[in-house]
Amino acid sequence: MDKPDRKNAKNVDTIGLGKTINISGSVKGLNNSKGYWEVIHGGKRRYVSGQYGKMV
Fold this sequence. Notes:
three-stranded antiparallel beta sheet; 3 strands; globular
């Protein structure tokens, strides 16, 4: 997503199931009790809903 707000963000890309990406941090954001993972994807700061990722 382009911002950490599940209801008002735009979906900018999809990460395939089981794919590993680097996480740059986590943020609380809006409209999601699990928070968001902050990632750099395609040279831009993006956000993944917390329930869809985990640290490995």
